[in-house]
Amino acid sequence: MAQLRARPEIRLLDGPEPDAQILLLVAETVDDDVRVQARRTQRTSGTRTVLVATAIDRHQVVSAAECGIGGIVRRADATPDHLVTVITSVAAGQAHLPGDLLAQLLTDVGRIAPPGLSALRLSSRERDVLRMVAEGQDTPHIAETLGFAVRTIKGDLHRVMIRYQLPNRAAAVAYALREGLI
Predict the structure, then answer these.
(1) Closest Cα partner for 71 from 91, 100, 54, 45?
(2) How far apart are CA 10 and CA 88, in angstroms?
(3) Which of 93, 95, 158, 182 gives 176 a disulfide partner, CB atoms 3.0 to 4.6 angstroms apart?
């Protein structure tokens, strides 16, 4: 991604380094190689992963989240400004997903979730927080909207990730969507 070299807020490294905050993977789609690389990165470092993919569907989004990918950008949308926005938000602990894929996932979950049963596993605040994360809102905005401290919102997310043994916020949202929790 040579177009990012000129951006002062991004420092590109020539290869894997332990202090890297973000691994930027560029691939055609979420295939076995992408999943293996993302899992390896997740297991061996604190580096978060952003995927730039030519083609991706809602099923691959879930697979990507399960592998620890924190942000997904379609190659057609990968302008320097958009990439910088996604990279910095993922580095700050946020997640990014193209809005149309998020809408499809939410629609699918709404159709398959058993009414009332699975939603009982999350508190109403945890459901609200996960919904807002799924909408792409950052922690300070969520805290302000819900009337809680940022630390409280981070604690809610952390408890959900621990409870369901999830590696990051993106995986928590994907899990919650898949299980019909939100």
Answers:
(1) 91
(2) 8
(3) 182
pTM of the model: 0.60
Query: Which one-letter DSSP state was computed for residue 169?
Result: H
pLDDT above 80 for 43: yes
Neighbours of 30 (CB within 10 A): 25
Tens digit of each residue's pLDDT (9 = 90 or more) over 93-150: 898 999 888 888 777 766 655 454 344 478 889 999 999 999 999 999 999 999 999 9
The strand pair at 22-27 and 69-74 is best described as unpaired
Residue 11 corresponds to which tokens in the numbers above? 């420092």
Q: Collapsing DSSP states into helix, strand and coil, what is residue 27?
A: strand
The half-sphere exposure of 138 on its side-chain side, counting CA atoms within 13 A, is: 9
φ/ψ of 70, rounded to 5, equals: -95, -15
Q: Give the H/E segment covering residue 50.
A: strand 48-53
Q: Which two structure tokens, joined as six digits, stand for 88?
A: 């910095």
